[in-house]
Amino acid sequence: MSSAHVDGTGGFGETEGGFAQRALAWVERAGNKVPNPAILFLALCVGVIVLSQLLDWIGVSVTSEVIQEPGGRDGIAYDDPALGPSDNGYLTVEERFEVKGLLTVEGIRFMFTSFVPNFLGFTAMGVILVAMIGVGVAELSGLIGALIRKLVAISSPGSLTYIIVFVGIISSIAADAGYLVLIPLAATAFLSVGRNPLAGIAAGFAAVSAAFGINVLITPADGVLTDFTNDAAQLIDPTVELDLAANLFFGIGSTIFLTIVIALITTRIIEPRLGAWDRSLADEDELAREEGPEIDEALESKGLRWALYAMLGVFAVVALLTLPSGAPLRNEETGEIIGSSPFMSSLIVIISATFLAAGLAYGKATGTVKGSDDAIGMITKSWATLASLLFLFLLIAQFIAYFDFSNMAQVAAVWMGDILEEMDVGDAPLLLGVIVVTILVNFLIPAKIAKWAILAPIFVPLMLRLGIEPQTVLAAYRVGDSPTNVLTPLMPYFALMVVFAARYQKDAGIGTVIALMIPYTLILTVVWIVFFFVWFFLGIPLGPGSPV
């Protein structure tokens, strides 16, 4: 373990190390001088209002094909895989995108009438509040701390990082649960073995977010991405029909590869540059809450057994509601469980209920939960810690709604796609162009499904005409979709990472998180692109029956 930085900083040392070390320290210092995130997003809202009006007066517009669901619901609005495709399939239609000013009559009316609906419709807010019911009880009862101690006890020092990263990558099967559960657990796990908890946050965030586009399993979002790809490809060849496993082999290979890369970045770059953690820089109240009360070892073992029984009980109930034919958590019409089904839509509720039941059982066995007042108090306390974050979410929701209303993101995406289409180059440069455009658009539209609804009708038909298979284009899109998630403040959970970091370094801000994540984004972007092209040139199938 390296020693604490000589300059007394809690993040990257500012007066030591080489150029990269000093550059990251400068990024952290400069980023933390940015106003409070709430003020920043308020300023961004004003900027969008002014810029949209200027572009409206100029008359900026583009025309492109987009994907819609019959009935008029625009495909680009989707970012909830649980909604899924309709039974009638998606439609590809031509649409004109014009930048709409927010200072027009329509724009002003939108800002005033949509303020509350924008906030209520901000998915991240509901997800966090529901998840924290269970996670808060599990944390404050001491269950989380006990689980971390067990994880550390059974893991070798060298394997802990790899376990956390791998679990973080595959957590996308449960949508956003990784952000709320895995990342704080990673910080606590690192802390429990004497490692810098900020490195744990960085490793967890990179795994959950920078590798969000791939998995060793088929995720809920894969169904929607595949449908969008099929509809776009059928503009050129009506016989094209990708299945859900079209990128499965590439996803498995990428998961293993990125697990190794992210773990190495954490242990070889992030931890040495952070140095030893200084407890005096942390929020002691938050640390006390995470570490939980001291529990006798025998009681702790009893509590973990009770927690296991409670968890199995929840699983049994969910199984009864899901597995039998006609069960209420199956899709009412198709009977499927994975994909568009109540079960997939309920994952956050199921996860929260599991943590709640396990936390209550653990607390009852160890004496940390003596009655309903204790349990409700834990939930209330966990929600209270989210107050500043909820206000920030209010402003982020407005900014995203204003940006979406203006059509500036859609215009930018189509414009970059048109530039790529006009380039007269070979297959590899075109696929690299798909990745680069996706990376750039991701800063404006982090939502994976919304972005592909715009880009698929641009890229897939173009590549198909040039002899590049749709599943290859989709794989290239996955490579460009995720690495920059950890740097864009438009990603709904970015603000939550600042909150997590502030637990261990009270002065942590946006700059702290950006400085932590820049090495991941730069290295993952480069090595994943190289990995993709090695896969491409070797001709390895991307999935069962899906040649590259």
Automatic annotation (TrEMBL):
Pfam families: ABG_transport. It comes from Svornostia abyssi. PANTHER family: P-AMINOBENZOYL GLUTAMATE TRANSPORTER, P-AMINOBENZOYL-GLUTAMATE TRANSPORT PROTEIN. The keyword Glycoprotein does not apply. This is AbgT family transporter. Keywords: Membrane, Transmembrane, Transmembrane helix. InterPro entries: AbgT. The chain crosses the membrane at residues 38-58, 119-148, 160-186, 198-218, 248-270, 306-323, 343-362, 383-405, 425-445, 452-468, 483-502, 514-538. It comes from the Bacteria.
